[in-house]
Amino acid sequence: MAKEKQHRPHTEPAGGWGSARAVGSILLKEHRLLHGSRILTHQNKPDGFMCVSCSWAKPAHPHPFEFCENGAKATAWDITSKTAPPGFFAEHTCAELESWSDHDLEEAGRLTAPMRWDAGTDRYVEIPWQQAFDEIGALLKGRDPDSVVFYTSGRASLETSYMFALLARMYGTNNLPDSSNMCHESTSVGLPKTIGVPVGTVTLDDFEHTDCMLFFGHNTGTNAPRMLHPLQEARRRGVPIVTFNPLREPGLVSFTNPQSPIEMLTGKETQISTQYLQLKLGGDTAAVAGLCKWLIEADDMARAQGEQPIVDHAFIAEHTHGFEAFADAMRQASWTDIERESGLTRMALAQAAATYAHAQAAMVLYGMGVTQHRNGVQSVQMLTNLLLLRGNIGKPGAGICPIRGHSNVQGQRTVGITEKPEHVPADKLRELYHFEPPARKGMNTVEACEGILDGRVTAFVALGGNFARATPDHARMEPAWRKLDLTVAVATRLNRSHLLHGRTAYLLPCLSRIEVDRQATGEQAVSMEDSTGCFHGSRGRHEPASDKLLSEPAIVARIAKATLAPNPHVDWDQWVGDYTRVRAAIEATYPRIFKDLNERMWNAGGFHRPLAACERKWETETGKANFVVPETLEADPDMPEQGDDIIRLMTTRSDNQFNTTVYGLDDRFRGVHGTRMVIMMNPGDMQRLRLNEGDVVVASTVAHDGYKREVAGLTVRPYDIPAGCAWSYYPECNPLIPLWHHARESKVPAAKSVPITLRREG
Ligand SMILES: Nc1nc2c(c(=O)[nH]1)N[C@H]1C(S)=C(S)[C@@H](COP(=O)(O)OP(=O)(O)OC[C@H]3O[C@@H](n4cnc5c(=O)[nH]c(N)nc54)[C@H](O)[C@@H]3O)O[C@H]1N2
Ligand SMILES: Nc1nc2c(c(=O)[nH]1)N[C@H]1C(S)=C(S)[C@@H](COP(=O)(O)OP(=O)(O)OC[C@H]3O[C@@H](n4cnc5c(=O)[nH]c(N)nc54)[C@H](O)[C@@H]3O)O[C@H]1N2
Ligand SMILES: [Mo]
Fold first, then answer.
1. Largest alpha-carbon pair distance within the chain?
2. Averaged in consecutive runs of 10 residues, what is the pLDDT profile of the chain (762 residues)?
3. So what's the pLDDT on residue 33?
4. What pLDDT does residue 148 have?
5. Fewest CB within 10 angstroms: 184, 246, 348, 761, which?
6. Ligand 3 mean position to 758 CA, how many Å?
7. Cα(404)–Cα(57) distance, rounded to whole angstroms?
8. 679 φ, ψ to 5°?
9. Which residues line ligand 2 (CB under 6 A)?
């Protein structure tokens, strides 16, 4: 497997020649060099296809090459000429495939035909599509609807997601967990309480008007690289960017635009962060408390001296609730606690606060470093507290920007993929489809795992994703998967979840969004919502990997037809024949959000959904934007007594993966090559724990619930990370995360601070 295992410090800026080389090499590896470069010119263009990688905004005036290194990799992965046809499965039993790495499973290539697992031979065997649907329908009928889970990974289009949610509800359940339950659910739970919207308020235009950006816990150079363009432009205007991240991520330090010949030739790079604060894992609540404390106390002083206030009192009086209690809590918070919990000095925090205080319009941007913690929801709310202090919501250049993950994860929520019945317009569903939508709350991701463990779940239908690999606590979960009656996976490539299957299992291959989707009325397009709340159309450009593939809407419709009693008010066939009809149904269900969807999805730059908070209207219980007093400044109130030997581990992505899809073993930006089985540690901790570079260790979770959670074979390397913290890769380290170790209100697995101890192997 690994030719070379080493850790070289990274010196190049993000982007640059390294990025250009990487695009070429992935196209070559997937055997698509010339053709692939042509396909890439359609990426993120009006009338082209929307990238299958991240959800970053698509500008109205795209660059000639509006894609990044990682978008190109994701495209190459979908248009690969490699396939895993039924012949491949005839050669390999599931038991054998289980010994393959995640990378090797997916690297087998695109799935080409519908298959059912054959218990006698332990192989997936091709069956005709209609037979698959008939059997799935027969197996779902008559089952307790609440024992079936309908999971969605964030790539499926608005059309597919709307149909899938309707299928689950007509079947009788709200069991609709989504990848966002592992991702920005802390945002979806946190923001409605503070500013009355479930999504971010920042649009691309705001980047042109902002005069300060605060960045928390996002690895932009790797996970939303196209965002480096607006960041670079903002820096050229002199906008300060303050970054809070335990790691000095190269993409947030400096950037060379690989699509600018001049920058490439001259090696000119733009410094991105003007101040870089390497806080402790989970230190965000404390760090933001430090900023708020400084602002409030500086404001107290300024007003006492008759000077210009620092806090926006007019905005606070007119638009917010709870300021006094919050301000008092911040005045009372001690700098000792703030410094200890954040790992940052008062001086550094004061400098950041002063930068923020100087800005007329500031925005806060954040990712998984904030949401995937025990206190993830509270930290999100601290970010809105900070913005509200200076009226930074609902004016140009200001706002909150949760950087979403999957390319349509935000949109899926908007069209009904949610376990929470209060988030769907039941009256509309009743009116349009004449059925009674289930009122009982369904299962989110963690609850679905609990249901699989305790036998309440009997069948699992997955629209994409790699649920078994992306979720925590593998050693506990794996035997439970095999006890399910039925697993159905709609997928493009083989992954480990397909091998951890139920007693009856189907693997249904679908078109990728990049592929031409031909239906009764001709070639179809789909739509999606980006991270900034803009809806876009997307049209496939590549010939399908196999003529046996069906589109996702077609698969969902045919499962629905085989499972549900006929309903004259839902014509699944018409929907599949013409997706504009699905969009009309989406508009009829959500008229305020999706007005004229069929036309406006082709607007250059898409069209923005109405968001009350952007107009300073607050759809909260108090009718105002709410300040929320943090319960604690601690990262994890349930963390075991911090013994000397306990390390806080974050699991994160390399520059060479898309979630559980591992493209290769190098992490160029962070200088890791040829392996992912590393644990990167603070040198002081290594010394204290008597570990040397190159030692191979076993990591064990510190938890007192009777389960042993271990990952062996991790090579120790020194890294620039605060003391007491370490990092390693997701999903290799997911076995270490207890299922109950999740954000308290949102149940997002707390993948960024797992208490572990280490022991040398052998
Ligand atoms: N190429 C590529 N693009 C992707 C993905 C991919 O896998 N590959 N995944 C997509 C998905 S689904 C998502 S959700 C996003 C994920 O994108 P990110 O939100 O960037 O997620 P991670 O890669 O886990 O990186 C988390 C970052 O937070 C920092 N961090 C960790 N703990 C803390 C903390 O306690 N506080 C602070 N302030 N920072 C912390 C880490 O050092 C790291 O820089 O990217 C999307 N885009
Ligand atoms: N420890 C730890 N765990 C984490 C995270 C972390 O940072 N640390 N991050 C979490 C986050 S943010 C997320 S979003 C989840 C991701 O969880 P998932 O969304 O479930 O996982 P992915 O790896 O994105 O799914 C990849 C699979 O999707 C299938 N696929 C790809 N494209 C398509 C398509 O167009 N259609 C269909 N039907 N299938 C397709 C392929 O078969 C591929 O193998 O993981 C979470 N888990
Ligand atoms: Mo995500």
1. 84
2. 48 65 68 65 74 78 70 81 96 98 95 98 98 98 97 97 98 98 97 97 94 96 88 93 95 75 68 94 98 98 97 98 98 98 97 98 98 97 98 98 93 96 97 98 98 98 98 97 98 98 98 96 96 92 95 98 97 98 98 97 92 97 98 82 85 95 91 96 97 98 94 98 97 97 97 96 84
3. 59
4. 98
5. 761
6. 28
7. 10
8. -125, 120
9. 106, 153-155, 179, 182-183, 368, 372, 405-406, 463-467, 470, 490-493, 495, 510, 512-513, 552, 651, 659-661, 730-731, 734, 737, 751
Looking at the domain 646-760, which fold is it?
Barwin-like endoglucanases (2.40.40)
Q: What is the pLDDT of residues 32-69, one digit of tens each?
A: 655 666 677 777 777 777 787 777 877 877 766 666 77
Residue to mutate (ligand 1; options 245, 284, 662; most atoms within 8 A of CB): 245
Measured between alpha carbons, how far is 578 from 703 in angstroms, rounded to an integer? 53
Instruction: Return d(Cα 66, Cα 41) in angstroms, integer.
Output: 7
Indicate the length of the chain as a whole number. 762
Find, among 169, 192, 311, the residue nearest to 628 by Cα: 192
Structure tokens at 183: 């991702």
* Residue 249 Cβ < 6 Å to ligand 1: yes
Please give the full DSSP string across 622-647, using - where no structure is assigned.
TSSEE----S-S-S-TTS----TT-E
Cβ(645)–Cβ(689) below 8 Å = yes
Residues 6+ away with beta carbon under 8 Å from 261: none
Domain boundaries, the chain: 14-79, 86-180+407-591, 185-403, 646-760
Instruction: State phi, psi for 438 to the nearest 5 degrees.
Output: -60, 140
- Residue 197 has φ and ψ, to the nearest 5°, of -135, 150
DSSP 8-state class, residue 256: E
pLDDT at position 695, please?
98
Q: Which pair of structure tokens corresponds to residue 587?
A: 């508009």
User: In three state form, how does the secondary structure of 587-617 look?
Assistant: HHHCCCCCCCHHHHCCCCCCEECCCHHHHCC
- β-strands 115-118, 504-509 pairing: antiparallel
- State which of 185, 223, 407 you would mutate to test the pocket of ligand 1, scoring each by most atoms of that ligand within 8 A of its C-beta: 223
Can you tell me which atom of ligand 1 is nearest the CA of 184? 14
- The CA radius of gyration of the chain, in Å to the nearest whole number, is 25
Beta bridge partners of 538: 526
CATH code for the domain defined by 185-403: 3.40.228.10
Structure tokens, 712: 């062996």
Instruction: Name the residue type at position 242.
Output: V
**Euclidean distance between CA atoms 511 and 491, whole angstroms:** 9
Contact 228, 263 (CB under 8 A): no
Distances (CA, A) of 553 to 115, 415, 518, 525, 556: 18, 14, 12, 11, 5
Q: How far apart are CA 496 and CA 100, in angstroms?
A: 9
Residue closest to 555 by CA, chosen among 431, 684, 685, 462? 462
> Under 8 Å CB-to-CB from 463, ≥6 apart: which residues?
150, 151, 152, 153, 156, 160, 161, 164, 490, 552, 556
Given CA atoms 130, 135, 140, 141 in this order, what sign does their dihedral have?
positive
Q: How many H helices and E strands in the chain?
A: 32, 33
DSSP string across 432-451:
HH-S----S----HHHHHHH
Q: Which of 577, 580, 579 is nearest to 520 (CA)?
A: 577
Please, what is the end-to-end C-alpha distance for the chain in angstroms? 22
User: What's the DSSP call for residue 270?
Assistant: E
Which token pair is 139? 């197996």
Q: Whose CA is nearest to atom 2 of ligand 1?
A: 223
- Amino acid identity of 221? G
Q: Into which CATH architecture does domain 86-180+407-591 fall?
A: 3-Layer(aba) Sandwich (3.40)
Task: Please name the residue whose Cα sits nearest to atom 46 of ligand 1.
Answer: 405
Q: What is the pLDDT of residue 1?
A: 35
